[in-house]
Automatic annotation (TrEMBL):
This is Phosphosugar-binding protein. Residues 33-207 form the SIS domain. One of its GO terms (molecular function) is carbohydrate derivative binding. It comes from the Bacteria.
Length: 242
């Protein structure tokens, strides 16, 4: 029988290991986001395939930063065509098409989620943002990058200003431990690392006296009113908020 206890423990151990391994990187990433808030700039977030789940986690959700601009192309989402999404993230040149519509500048930061960290879209997106003067936070797995076939001139690890390592093993599956076939962890760990960054942004920012722009749940008293002010500020700059 599948042991839920085993899976809970292995997932908990993975999160604890990721937190320990990335302590300095989380602090550095939080520092970059605090710079964005001070400059009244934007945090751009991007990914492809199932890494778009992490992008959704960053955007327009209770407890999340309001100053997030999600970079997106519909062909990257498996729900719009599973095989097409794989072909699309391997297509060189798409990143520049996306950046041509809206790109981060020197005061902004780009966060790129990609577990494999080798496909042209995330790698070229990071490289394009850096050419435009933006810092890049790469959330990836160094082990997966090392094991994956090279499809770009560089990797996301090489293009990141700050690199967070999810510690996910090649193939992403985690269960059973002896021969992993299921229980993928990248989505869970990516969300956890993002929340660690947000927690540090909140602690350091409030201690500094910054007003951290955080969404409230629309299903709590006062949530809609609090969000209305954030929408008025960011909707003109973030079309996806409309």
């Amino acid at each position: 029988m599948v042991s839920a206890t085993d899976l809970v423990k292995s997932t908990s151990d993975q999160l604890a290991a990721a937190a320990k391994a990335n302590a300095e990187q989380v602090s550095a990433a939080a520092g970059l986001l605090l710079g964005v808030i001070r400059a009244d700039a934007l945090v751009f977030t991007a990914g492809a395939g199932h890494s778009l789940a992490a992008v959704a986690e960053t955007f327009y959700r209770a407890g999340g930063l309001a100053s997030v601009y999600p970079l997106y192309h519909p062909e990257l989402l498996p729900l719009h065509g599973a095989q097409q999404s794989t072909r699309t993230e391997r297509r060189s040149g798409l990143a520049e098409e996306v950046l041509a519509e809206r790109a981060p500048g020197p005061d902004d930061v780009l966060v790129v989620f990609s577990t494999s960290g080798v496909n042209p879209y995330p790698v070229e997106l990071a490289a394009g943002a850096r050419r435009r003067g933006a810092a890049v936070i790469a959330v990836t797995s160094r082990a997966c990058v090392a094991a994956a076939p090279r499809r770009s001139a560089t990797t996301l690890v090489e293009e990141g200003t700050v690199v967070l390592d999810s510690l996910v093993i090649p193939g992403d599956a985690s269960y059973p431990a002896s021969a992993p076939r299921t229980g993928p962890l990248s989505t869970v760990v990516n969300a956890f690392l993002w929340n660690l960054i947000l927690a540090e942004v909140y602690d350091r920012g409030t201690a500094e006296g910054l007003d951290i722009p955080l969404w409230r749940s629309s299903n709590v008293e006062g949530g809609d009113a609090a969000n209305a002010a954030l929408l008025a500020k960011y909707e003109p700059r973030v079309p996806a908020l409309r």
